[in-house]
Amino acid sequence: MTVERYIHVIAGFFIMASLALGVEQSPLFVNPWFLAFTAFVGLNLFQFGFSNMCPMGYILRKLGVPDNKPVEHQALATASESV
Predict the structure, then answer these.
(1) What is the separation of C-alpha 9 from the centre of its chain, rounded to a whole number of angstroms?
(2) What 8-state DSSP symbol labels residue 30?
(3) Is the separation of the CB atoms in 18 and 82 below 8 Å?
(4) Tens digit of pLDDT for each residue in 31-82?
């Protein structure tokens, strides 16, 4: 998986978890302030769409997760590395 796919998966997980913990009708309800975390994740995704800058992306890159590359660039990179 790539950085962008991990960002979508992690953001989706955090949104679903914070909704489960923040909505009063949920059996996992803890406190309505968990909905503020949902808003934070949504705001971060919104600004990521405009600036392409995401703190989670920086963390994932430091951990060695590869960036998105078009398929033809991956094939060229693999071919040049094998030479």
Answers:
(1) 6
(2) -
(3) no
(4) 999 999 999 999 999 999 999 899 999 999 999 999 977 665 555 555 556 5
Domain-wise residue ranges, the chain: 3-82
Q: What tokens does 71 get?
A: 């398929």
H or E, element range at 25: none
Q: In sequence order, which residues have a C-beta less than 8 Å from that of residue 2 and are 6 or more positions away?
A: 65, 66, 67, 68, 69
Per the listing, tokens 């309800």 go with 29
pTM of the model: 0.74
C-alpha to C-alpha distance for 9 and 32, rounded to whole angstroms: 23
Separation CA 30–CA 33 (nearest Å): 9
C-beta of residue 19 within 8 angstroms of C-beta of residue 32: no
